[in-house]
Write the C-alpha cells for this entry.
Amino acid sequence: MSDLNKQYTIVPVATPILTHHDDICQAVLTYGAGLIGPNDVVCVAESVVAITQGRALRCEELHPGLPAKILCYLFPSKGSIASPYSMQALIAAEGLARVLFAILCGFAAKCVGVSGVFYRLAGKQARLIDDVTGTMPPYDKHIVYGPEEPEAVASAIAAACGCFGGAVADVNDLKRSAVLGVSKGVDADKVAAILIDNPFGNASQKTPICIIKDYAAG
C-alpha cells in the first residue's frame, strides 16, 4: 500500500487554534463546510482531538518525582518521554511498576537485537504522549496525552458530517503514520498509508483536519 498516498486527493482544512472549549465534531462541520462529500473520510490529528478533550496539562501541573527525573535520561533527547515532565505524565497514566517493567524488558530485548518492546509493554500513552514543543502553540508549553476513545470520536465525526467515515490519526514528518481509531467500514492500515506524507499541519499551517476525497469510491 506504499503508493496509496498518490492515488487519493487529500484536502487540508484550516481552523483557528482549537482548545478544550471546542467540540471536535462541530469544528469539523464548521471549518469543513462545503468540502466534505458522502464518499470521503475525514481525518483529525490525534493531538487536536486530545486537546479538545481537555487532555493537555501545563508543566506546572506536573510535579516530577525522582523516578521520572532519572528514567527520562534513558530515552533519546528528541523522544516524546525524554523530559521529567513527560515521563511523570507517563508514570501517572500507566503506573511506575509498569513503566519500570517495560524498561527492563526493553533493555533485555535490545541486547538481542529486538526493538520497540518498551513501547509495546509500557501502555498506549508511551506511544501517544506529546512532550512540550510536540504540538502547536500555545500547546507547545503543554504535555498532551493521547485521546480517549478515538474510535468513538471517528464514528461521531462520520455521523455528524454524513460522510463515509472518520479517522483519528497520529502522523509526523518522519514517515510515521498510525491510525488510532476509525469508524465502521474504514481500513485503518489503508488510511495510515494514504496519510504517510503527513498532510496535517499542526503548527503555523493550522490544518489539523484533512479530508480523503472519494475514499469509498476507491
Observations:
- The chain has a mean pLDDT of 90.
